Amino acid sequence: MALLKLNNISKEYERGGKKFPAVNNASLEINQGDYVNITGRSGSGKSTLLNIAAGMLSPSSGSVELDGELLNFKSDKELSLMRNNKIGFIPQGLAALNYLSVLENILLPFYLYPDKNFGDADGYARILLEKFNIEKLADAYPNELSGGELRRVIIARALINRPKIIIADEPTADLDLENINNIMQIFTKLNEQDGTTLLIVSHDQEALAYGKKLFIMSEGVLSLKN
Amino acid sequence: MLNKNLNLNLALKNIRMRPQRNFCIILSLLIFAFLLFAGSVLLTGLSNGSQSMADRLGADIMLVPSGYDPHIDSILLSGKPSTFYLPEDALNKLNEINSNPDIDIGIGAVSPQTFLATLNASCCSYPVQLIGIDYNSDFIVKPWLESAIHRELNDGEIITGYHVSGQPGEILKFFNKDLLIAGRLEQTGMGFDSAIFMNKNTIAVLAKEAERITGRKISNKSGMTSVIMLKLKPGYDSVVSAGELNRQLNKHGIYALFSKKFVNKISDSLSIISSIIKFILIIVWLFAVIIIALLFTLSLSERKGEMGILRVLGASRNKLTSLILTESLLTSFYGAILGAILAAAAVFALRPYIINSLKMPFLLPDIFNLILLFISAILISVLTGAAASGYAAFKAGRDDIYNAAKNF
Amino acid sequence: MHSKIKIFARFLNFLILISGVTLALTPFILFPVCEGLRLDGSRMICFNSAILITASGVLIALSALINFKFKNIFIALIALASFIIPVNNFLSFGLCGSLEHECQAVMMPKAGMLIALIILISFINLILNFLSSERR
After folding, report:
1. How many CB pairs under 8 A join A and C?
2. Which of A6, A129, C47, C90 has the smallest set of CB atoms within 10 Å of its CB?
């Protein structure tokens, strides 16, 4: 069974009184353990598709299924809970809360809906920090970190609730080559060693070297590249 | 560190992110809560005071020497010590009128009182008002004097007003005479609080001693009377009767006052003060609402990114709304409680000055009502803060995640 | 931003120190009261209040010098007590009965102003404490 299934997704925007399709009849199936890359020029509709996949944007038509559940017609509360539990979303940019320490930022998704059965969330956050070689930064604040370090913090944050799937929007944007490889190696390790399912949107050629499947998005149309 | 009280944690951290802004919010609610509590205590205190005055001032008409009528309110209200006397035949004149069948003004009970101010001689014998009452005819002071000691007042005994220092059993010395404190009165909010009461014989002795010490004659003959209190029979109007008395007695240097005049005057100024306080409260309330709503809306646009991140991580719309509300409740509560405490302190500290400067009877509400007013002032202020941030709180969760997330 | 608050708080603390010292000096040195004795040789009631106010001033100035938990609340309470107690004739403290006496006419109003200032500052400090983050 597919973990994430997009069926004939379309999304139309209005611009200057005219409708134009940002996403045009896109379909995609991601199975447990997949590592899927989507690339394309900016404005091609990649981010829109990703946001629809994560339940943050509703499609004009088509349906999204995550872990066997249809996202259409779900309430905001249900969608939010699902996003918190099942999806580790890595947004574009350096999206961390500046008034929280690194450790607190990582723990934030856990504390939104604390789960008694989870075990030691704090300990798990520290394990993730160690895994990404940023354990010394636990008590630092985001504005004291370099771009690469902060990106790793955000990845750790996406992992804290042990999600079914990691969805990342341009996780390597604005990074130098060394950091890009660093981040992509983390993703590869997560996929190969822990079996984490990944859906990554990127237009970095270096980033696309990693991953098992590559899709191309062009003018809202999604197609598999062989 | 974060914990299960995420809302509280995030709210506190957020508040501390913008200290200047939140200082303004706290300050505006502090001022509002201060004025709300202080204002309502003041108003209740004044209306309690004037109620007690209306109850205590059992006389319908007072006869005072001409020329003293304008001072009567300050004597009654602030207890300003004064010594003045009616012409010695005042009682006789009154009896003449009373027994004249052509003049029907319905005089019921008649009771003279004698005022004597003590001297400002040595350091601590400051002037207080001594009031001598005629125990046989008195109908004004006696009821509550008796409730203080449950018996008649003997010669050489006194009953002190609430603010006069000295406990029952102690001796106070006036004009070289030792006077035994027999009891102490409850607070009235009026000048009686700083007066000392005794019977006719005692005050006569003191007056004689006073004449000896000062070398000045206080009154011509015995039977010194400062005021005569009159109670009318039912069905007679005190304004009409006072008017008739004035016609008859003004030429003898006696002036008739109807007591309602004070009570009316006081309730007039009470309603003016109460409208002023209400007006100020409304203005300050409006300011607080505008400032808080403005600052929260301002923060909202700055915080789009933060809201976006929280949404992405799985915070529902309601969660964001409650986060903003938690913030405004926290700052409002902090401001409100500080304001109310400050107001309580100010009321207690300044009470003697308030009474003196307002020239109105003032009785603090009892502790139960004070606590009730205190809690309501805090509650209303907190609700004001929460309501003012309501729009921002509602909007916080309603922004499209996709748009919000672009603001990181 | 937070360092600015700290500097401001330090300035306010200094103001409290100065006001505390001035308050301590008010009843006996700046605006002396109750120098005379009663006829029976005892002190006047205002003398007790003068001692109370001096002691409060000293306590307030001392607490401005050291840091401890609930410092601002402590300062506000001390200041408040040194006003409420004499003015309302609590315990055996009080003011001379005559409004014209130094005690009532000069010393207490001056002390009252200082006390109001100290209370206001300690309340502002309370708010600043609440607003300044524990973040290092």
Report:
1. 3
2. C90
DSSP annotation of A120 reads: -
**What is the complex's ipTM, to 2 decimals?**
0.91
Does the distance separating the beta carbons of B13 and A91 come in below 8 Å?
no
pLDDT, averaged across chain A: 88
C-beta separation of A209 from A202 below 8 A: no
Inter-chain residue contact A56 with B311, CB threshold 8 Å: yes
Chain B residues within 8 A of C48 when measuring between CB atoms: none
Same domain, B305 and B288: yes
As a dihedral over the C-alpha atoms of residue A174, residue A175, residue A181, residue A182, rounded to 10 degrees, the angle is: -130
What tokens appear for C38 in the block? 């009663």
pTM value?
A: 0.78
What type of residue sits at position B327? E
CATH code for the part of the protein at A31-57+83-225 = 3.40.50.300
**CB pair distance less than 8 Å for B19 and C39:** no
Contact state of A97 with B16 under an 8 Å Cβ cutoff: no
Does the pLDDT value for residue B55 go beyond 80? no
Q: Kindly report, residue by residue over A48-97, the tens digit of the pLDDT.
A: 898 899 888 888 899 999 988 888 888 889 999 999 999 999 988 888 88
- Residue B375, domain extent: 6-52+266-407
- The Cα of B4 is separated from the nearest Cα of chain A by a number of Å equal to 6
Q: What is the pLDDT of residue A199?
A: 93
In this complex, is the C-beta atom of B304 within 8 Å of any C-beta atom belonging to chain A?
A: no
Nearest alpha-carbon partner for C104 in C22, C44, C33: C33
